[in-house]
Inverse folding.
């Protein structure tokens, strides 16, 4: 039994560490906050009942965040805690009883505040000037991100009035829904992946290296806590009012509450009204007003005893499933989508929910005409979390997954290890044909500016283009009749297409869309095969001899050139003057300073991508190798470097550099 409990505790700890890592380090939510908190509660319970399994590193005792290597690490003069969570009024009543036991009934006042969903920050002010801003990090120390915080317009850099000489203000950096949507609209235009939610985006933005980029994100800030050795007032409420006169943005919704009933009213009000706020909140924070009382209560290992968060449950609504439709992505991946009877959820009308893939539908056990529960978690897209079986009609049929592509009728295939079905008709399935052309014009490929996905779709429907070679036969006269196409834009498109004839071979090779041939692989291929002819006629054996080219890629290249339509397209591209040969300066190096030296990069790099780093090594005559061994000269470590770093340290002969030191090394030339 006890072994079982031990294993359960360990597995929960491991799981929660993983979620924390994703959440705080990579700004990703692998599960909903609600599910996360349930697991945490379960662990707390098990640990309290089984104190023999105590571990100071347990996620129940530690603030989840971490420190990155990209900013200076600064210790907090006053530790930054997390908050205890409660989900129902019973929890709150328990908390209030504990407090009354210490101070007596009616002796305690509370301040109720909105719980802003962003990233917390501690800002030091000296003599009325902002001096330093630090993230919460692990609570003991955080990242110094002063320059990024200075770009936030509602954080005062200088103060007014009668402020103390030295103190910290703590608060939350967040994104309004509107600014979040704007960022995503722009990303959509640029063909970039969309951000998941305002919280993760705000937190990620704060950790960007270039503060000019941070400024563009239009972050907001609200301050909710004054901290210092001495307090210029006796209550939290008064401190907030004072901070306001000094120039801080203090939440206008905060409310002084005399008792639990007033607190409950506040909570009930905001549980309904929160969707009308211009920003997201995930609950309410309650704080004891009197500072002396706060000090008497003190802290647990993780949170103040004088404060409590009340978290709103993710809203769940029931609605009817009207149909399941199947979308074909640009890579041929099939995504089932549920069309729902429109319903209001978390402030927006929901009509659709993603069903992910066949397994998900099976797992839900979805039938036609089912009544389903829909929830909005941390993500923007709502999902179906359950079915109301009481309302299922007796003769309703189970949803049967489609066998053929809804766009072109081709029989779908399932590839091992992948959750989605695919339509294999790459060359003639309409979304895939369009997708291939969009890929061809994208920035990392032929970089044909002005030719957006909508225009390509229109051109395809008008039967003017069917593969990348067709772009080069387009005329301005053909473009003009398209919707919303002005003379000037048409001219720009023609010019951009013409300009793409300058793009080097490796990008063209990436652009033609051979499966598994990404940017890096394309480069490696061009290094070894100077012309498209050489590549086309290379045998599988010759291909796999190239560094990083495995049999899968080799076969995919063969497959591509077996198809007469592809050969014809390549021939036409050649005729139009597209570069299908290696540039003379392809192998040119910048310097020889790394000659004879070997490099390996590990961990999460933030100053450059791994590919860019490897390219820098090559351009300076160094060599990249793929494992830590006696042959390795330099190991360059990013954030969270793991086993490779350890191995290198153990070997003791390898020089370990951080990213900046690596840059310094090559700039010595
Ligand atoms: N989905 C996931 O994978 C995942 C992973 C880790 C954590 N989480 C979520 O994060 C929570 C833990 O995060 P946490 O440690 O930041 O705690 P928390 O979010 O529960 O509460 C503490 C934080 O609340 C913020 N806050 C907002 N308004 C405030 C106000 N008015 N006064 C004081 N503080 C205010 C502060 O930033 C403070 O650090 C979990 O309970 C979970 O919901 C989710
Ligand atoms: Zn198809």
């Amino acid at each position: 039994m006890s072994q079982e409990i031990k294993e359960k505790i360990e597995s929960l700890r491991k799981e929660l560490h993983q979620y924390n890592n994703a959440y705080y380090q990579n700004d990703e939510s692998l599960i909903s906050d609600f599910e996360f908190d349930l697991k945490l509660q379960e662990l707390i319970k098990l640990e309290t009942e089984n104190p023999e399994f105590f571990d100071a590193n347990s996620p129940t005792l530690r603030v989840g965040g971490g420190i990155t290597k990209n900013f200076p690490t600064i210790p907090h003069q006053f530790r930054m805690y997390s908050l205890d969570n409660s989900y129902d009024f019973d929890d709150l009543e328990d908390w209030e009883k504990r407090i009354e036991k210490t101070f007596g009934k009616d002796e305690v006042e509370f301040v109720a505040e909105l719980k802003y969903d962003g990233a917390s920050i501690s800002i030091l002010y000296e003599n009325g000037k902002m001096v330093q801003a630090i993230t919460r990090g692990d609570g003991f120390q955080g990242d110094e991100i002063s320059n990024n915080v200075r770009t936030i317009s509602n954080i005062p850099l200088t103060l007014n009035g009668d402020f103390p000489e030295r103190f910290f203000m703590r608060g939350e950096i967040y994104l309004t829904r509107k600014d979040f949507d704007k960022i995503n609209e722009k990303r959509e235009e640029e063909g970039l992946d969309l951000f998941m939610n305002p919280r993760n985006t705000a937190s990620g933005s704060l950790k960007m290296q270039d503060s000019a980029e941070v400024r563009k994100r239009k972050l907001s800030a609200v301050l909710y806590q004054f901290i210092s050795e001495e307090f210029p007032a006796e209550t939290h409420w008064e401190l907030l009012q004072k901070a306001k006169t000094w120039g801080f943005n203090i939440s206008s919704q905060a409310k002084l509450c005399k008792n639990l009933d007033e607190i409950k009213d506040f909570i009930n009000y905001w549980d309904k009204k929160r969707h009308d706020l211009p920003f997201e909140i995930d609950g309410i924070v309650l704080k004891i007003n009197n500072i002396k009382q706060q000090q008497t209560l003190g802290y647990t290992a993780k949170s103040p005893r004088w404060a409590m968060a009340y978290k709103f449950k993710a809203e769940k609504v029931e609605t009817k499933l009207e149909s399941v439709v199947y979308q074909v992505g640009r890579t041929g991946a099939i995504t089932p989508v549920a069309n729902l009877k429109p319903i209001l959820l978390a402030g927006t009308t929901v009509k659709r929910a993603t069903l992910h893939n066949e397994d998900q539908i099976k797992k839900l056990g979805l039938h036609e005409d089912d009544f389903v529960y829909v929830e909005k978690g941390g993500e923007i897209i709502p999902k179906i979390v359950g079915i109301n079986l009481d309302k299922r009609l007796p003769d309703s049929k189970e949803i049967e997954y489609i066998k053929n592509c809804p766009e072109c009728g081709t029989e779908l295939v399932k590839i091992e290890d992948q959750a989605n079905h695919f339509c294999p008709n790459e060359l003639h399935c309409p979304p895939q044909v369009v997708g291939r052309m969009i890929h061809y014009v994208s920035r990392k490929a032929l970089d044909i500016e002005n030719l957006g996905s909508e225009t390509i779709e229109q051109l395809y429907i008008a039967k003017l283009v069917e593969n990348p070679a067709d772009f080069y036969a387009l005329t301005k006269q053909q473009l003009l009749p398209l919707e919303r196409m002005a003379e000037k834009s048409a001219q720009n498109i023609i010019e951009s297409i013409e300009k793409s004839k300058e793009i080097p071979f490796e990008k063209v090779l990436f652009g033609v869309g051979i499966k598994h041939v990404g940017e890096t692989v394309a480069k490696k291929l061009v290094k070894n095969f100077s012309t498209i002819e050489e590549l086309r006629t290379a045998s599988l054996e010759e291909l796999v001899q190239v560094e990083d080219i495995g049999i899968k890629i080799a076969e995919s290249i063969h497959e591509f050139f077996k198809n007469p339509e592809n050969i014809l397209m390549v021939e036409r591209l050649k005729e139009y003057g597209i570069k299908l040969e290696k540039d003379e300066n392809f192998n040119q190096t910048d310097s020889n300073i790394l000659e004879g030296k070997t490099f390996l990069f590990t961990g999460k790099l933030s100053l450059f991508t791994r590919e860019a780093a490897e390219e820098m090594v090559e351009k300076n005559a160094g060599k990249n190798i793929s494992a830590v061994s006696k042959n390795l000269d330099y190991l360059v470590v990013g954030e969270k470097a793991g086993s490779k770093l350890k191995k290198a340290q153990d070997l003791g002969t390898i020089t370990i550099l951080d990213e900046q030191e690596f840059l310094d090394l090559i700039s010595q030339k």
Residues 19-20, 23, 29-33, 36-37, 63-64, 82-83, 85, 113, 115-116, 120, 136, 172, 224, 285, 309, 378 surround nicotinamide-adenine-dinucleotide (ligand 1) (CB under 6 Å). The CA atoms of residues 205 and 217 lie 7 Å apart. The first strand starts at residue 73 and ends at 75.
